[in-house]
């Protein structure tokens, strides 16, 4: 009898609090692309790509086990939110009310707080191993200080033989709230454990940046980068002028053209020795270009030790700290409206 009661209670707990949500791994394969995931943080844990001779390498940094991701401070491959990037002073005002978010980086909030979307267990809604997987998370009112319930879905989809689409959707249920999601993959097109990305060439179709202060909080300015070390309007080696910057690249670029529903070409990255090339399109106004300046001997998968500049991140998103800058595109989404962020990657090797 007692046992039965326990069972009923346990079941109730599971249903109510999703305590029974298991952490698992998933795989999508199609054409020459093979990608793995875990529902912890909706992380993309590996991505295998052929080089110009057909040799497959894993081109994203990560860990061998899910425990690695639980322990992690790098956000390798994770979906970050509710608000990606930084919120200055860990607070913002919305409709006359102040909201205080979790100050997990000094006085500021980074990537949604200490237990953001990268550190929660997502459920799996839809999984077709030859095509796509959808992860879902119900974010609650007050989570890391953010207002209102929000339903979040992320779909990874393989298209054709060499394309990966990532669709991030979110719907606020009962209160207006800022929403800004990003996929925090660290790429190294040579292979995840091949050293640094300084000889990769990158082109960023973005003529402006949002400069930041010493704590990496935007000053509110939007400045042209032509001729500066930030200028990647023409393809150029990442390392060619990196020494002119403190630490390396960690800045939001304003993608050229008009933001909206349509996908715009954002970046092209290529690696000469393998011939691999990655092109990225997105519907977002900005892209954070980060050259893993803060990595210090992180123990990664296959016994890799990731050091400074071991990977590059291209996190398409809204502008950082938009909640505190009226001149930046708004990230406020109201109940009844929805947030949609699309990334499209095309991989080739020649
Ligand atoms: C897939 O890889 C094979 C072997 O390297 C190659 O012949 C083929 O062209 C590739 N397909 C695509 C779409 O890249
Ligand atoms: C977790 O982090 C601690 C301290 O950085 C480290 O000693 C430990 O090996 C890590 N565990 C895993 C599973 O990565
Ligand atoms: C918001 O989420 C909480 C906890 O998940 C739930 O109890 C509550 O009913 C939700 N409210 C609405 C309006 O959906």
Automatic annotation (TrEMBL):
Q: Where does beta-D-galactose bind?
A: 85-86, 184-186, 250
Q: Which residues form the active site?
A: 184, 315
Q: Which domain of life is it from?
A: Eukaryota
Keywords annotated in UniProt: Carbohydrate metabolism, Isomerase, Signal
Reactions this protein catalyses: alpha-D-glucose = beta-D-glucose
GO MF terms listed in the record are:
aldose 1-epimerase activity; carbohydrate binding
Q: Where is the signal peptide?
A: 1-20
Main enzyme class? isomerase
The pathway noted for it is:
Carbohydrate metabolism; hexose metabolism
Under Enzyme Commission nomenclature, its number is 5.1.3.3
| Any GO BP | glucose metabolic process
Give the family, as the similarity comment puts it.
Answer: Belongs to the aldose epimerase family.
How is this protein named in the record?
Answer: Aldose 1-epimerase
The organism of origin for this protein: Eutrema salsugineum
